[in-house]
Structure formats: C-alpha cells, structure tokens
Design goal:
Structural class: alpha+beta
Shape: rod-shaped
Distance between the termini: 96 Å
Radius of gyration: 47 Å
Strand order of the largest sheet: 4-2-1-5-9
Length: about 400
C-alpha cells in the first residue's frame, strides 16, 4: 500500500512510502514524482495528529447500534465543540469495556478527502500521522522535531503537542513511577535528554523508515469509517426537505411538456391543412404533374414555372400562350380564394374561367397579371349567390 503524509490539504511537498511486509523508506518530493507510485496501490493518508483527538472511554456493550449512541454520549462532557459537528470512530478491545476513540471535525475530514481527489486519488484509509511512529508494548515513543512533539503511548493512542507543553507531557509519562520509564526517542535535541534520570532512553536509529508493525494494526481506526453513511443520511435529510418542492417542479415540467405537445399537434394539423390546399391548387395549375410531395411543393412550383418559361422562350411561335400561363401561375401563387374552372388557349389567346368568393380577388389577380405581362387583361365577371365567376382573356404575344 502507498502511505502519503501531508501537512496541509494543499501541501505541495508530500512525503510517501510504499509499504509492504518490509520497512519502507520515506521519500520526499512533488506530486508529479509521487503520482506514478499510486498505480494499483491502496492509499493510506496520514494527516497532522493535532487535528485528531485520540482518547479512550468505557462502554459496557459490543452491539454496534448501541455503541453508535453510547460512545458519543460518554464523550459529551469532554468535548467543547458541538458533537453534531464531529466525526467519531472507535475500536473495541476484546474481553474489555475499553474503547479507543478518534475524533475529528467532519468538515475538516472532508477537506482531506477532497485534497486527494484534486489529484485524482481516493484514500482508502485516513489516520493521524503519529501512528507512523514505531511502538512496543509498555514503551512509549516520543518524536521531537523543532517545536513539534509526537507521543505514541499505545497501539491506538497518543497525542501531538508543542515544545512549550513538553514538561507537562513528561510529568504525565512518569507520574507515579519509581523506576525510570523506558522511552523510545527520536529528537533533534538529544543532548537535553541524556541527563534526565526519569527515563531509560532507547534512541530511534531509523528515523526515515516506516515499519509495517507501526501502521498495520492502526488501520482498524480508519477515520473514513461511517463517513459514507453520514453522507447518505444528509442526502436523505435534504431530500425530505426538498421533496415537496421537487414534486411540484416535476409536475410543472410534465404539465409544460403536455401543453407543448398539444400545441405542437394543433400547429401540425394546421400545416397539414395548408399543405393540402396548396397541393390542390398546384394540381389545378399543372394537371399533368403527379406524385408531388407537399414538403417540396415550393421547389416543384418554381421548377414547373421555369420549365414553362423555358418552353416559351425556346418556341419559335411568338403567339404561344405559355408566357401568359407562366405569369398566371406566378400570380395565382400570391393570390388566395381563387378556383380555376377552365383554361383555353386558341390563336395565341389565353382564356381563364375562374371562381372566387369576392370581386376584389379577381381584380387583384388581373392587376398582378397586367403588371407582369406589361399589357392589358380583359375581365368579365358575374356574381352568384355566394361567389363571383370571371373570365380573364390575355393576348397571345409576350
């Protein structure tokens, strides 16, 4: 497994060791140098011990559900901050009521999780860094570097402090002892310890090594225990809070989609009706053309008009009615409420029998034709009970 030690969540100079069943040397460098070592490895993250409270309590149960209630309750008087803001993990002892406990602020723990995620890493275990210290039964380990001190008092307990608190720490280690206390020591100020008769010092010679026996027993006090369950519980609470609003929003969205569908269907029906009318008019103007797609009617009309004009321009007969018919087709495309009843061409003269609902439609058609042809168009009309019948006569010369 890969063990990474960080001083802050945005630490740019991590330390790491690849731990197997042998001691591993600590390495120091940049994230670019570290990341290749993460491939295929479980990741253990060591964070500063000053952010984690390691303590012990006594609970007379081994039932996990009961422990979940009893452990926080037993620590309530010894924790100044609100327990609801703390993340608590514990480990029981066989045949004992003693429980080892680790406590960290929940939001701070999430910051450490996110610190690795920014480098596309996921921690399998998070532990306080004093668990990297070697330890033997009945022999505390003290590590001193500059102003900072780490003390490991047992397999799952210890604390971190500053040099100012060192006298109190030493008194707590020797309180009630008549014989020198065995102490495993690493210090960059070793000379100050040599003359202290209260301790039997065993110097730590491998300061830059991580031992499997130091870390592996502590994995059971993983700070990530229960964090996912807390996240799920928070999501459930948020869901209960927003469930009504979400339901109303979903209902509104469904209603909007339904209204959109109804309106789309109505508009499509209108378009189909208009396509049918246009197709009927096209068929009346060009009865010889079949299999016309309403969706391409505009292009087909332009094609037929161009064909008629082309025939008219290539014809040697200057009295051909095709130019007038082409002009009429173009005029009909811009004039509504007209029905063609009959078209006759004779001796260069084109006669159109039409029916319209209003006289104005007939007049508009004639005006359009006269402007297009540049010549007069003869009009005869008569009114019936509900329509106007008209005959338009155009000369054969273009």
């Amino acid at each position: 497994m890969l063990v990474i030690r960080l001083q802050t969540p945005n630490d740019l100079d991590p330390a790491w060791a690849v731990l197997t069943n042998k001691p591993a040397d600590w390495q120091h460098g940049s994230w670019e140098k570290l990341l290749p070592a993460t491939r295929g490895q479980d990741v253990v993250l060591l964070i500063p011990s000053r952010e984690v409270l390691l303590t012990q309590t006594n609970v007379n149960t081994r039932n996990q559900k009961q422990l979940q209630q009893a452990v926080p309750f037993s620590l309530e008087d010894s924790i100044a901050d609100d327990l609801d803001n703390q993340h608590i993990v514990w480990q029981t002892h066989p045949n004992s009521t003693q429980v080892d406990v680790a406590i960290i602020k929940r939001e701070r723990l999430r910051e450490w999780v996110n610190a690795l995620q920014t480098h596309q890493l996921r921690a399998n275990v998070i532990l306080p860094d004093l668990f990297a210290l070697p330890w033997e039964a009945d022999t505390p380990t003290l590590w001193q570097q500059g102003e900072f001190i780490w003390v490991r008092t047992s397999e799952l307990s210890g604390y971190a402090s500053t040099h100012a608190a060192l006298p109190l720490l030493l008194d707590s280690l020797t309180s009630g002892k008549t014989e020198p206390v065995p102490l495993r020591l690493y210090s960059d100020q070793a000379d100050t310890w040599a003359s202290d008769p209260r301790f039997e010092i065993t110097p730590e010679a491998q300061a830059e090594q991580l031992l499997p026996a130091s870390l592996q027993p502590t994995l059971k006090l993983n700070l990530l225990q229960g964090l996912q369950d807390e996240n799920r519980a928070q999501l459930r609470q948020q869901w209960q809070r927003w469930k009504l609003a979400t339901g109303l929003a979903a209902a509104s969205a469904i209603l909007a989609v339904g209204l959109y569908g109804v309106e789309s269907y109505r508009l499509q029906q209108q378009l189909d009706s208009i396509d049918e009318q246009n197709l009927q008019l096209f068929t009346e103007l060009f009865p010889d053309v079949s299999d016309v797609d309403p969706r391409s009617l505009k292009n087909r009309l332009a094609s037929e008009v161009a064909r008629v004009r082309g025939k008219g321009s290539s014809s040697s007969n200057n009295t051909s009615p095709l130019p007038q018919l082409s002009a009429f087709a173009a005029a009909m495309s811009s004039t509504g409420d007209l029905t063609v009843e009959d078209i006759r061409a004779q001796n260069g003269e084109l006669t159109l029998n039409l029916q319209a609902k209003t006289q104005q439609a007939i007049e508009t058609l004639r005006d359009t034709l006269e402007k297009s042809l540049g010549s007069s168009v003869e009009l005869q009309s008569s009114r019936t009970a509900d329509s106007v019948k008209a005959t338009l006569t155009m000369g054969g010369k273009s």
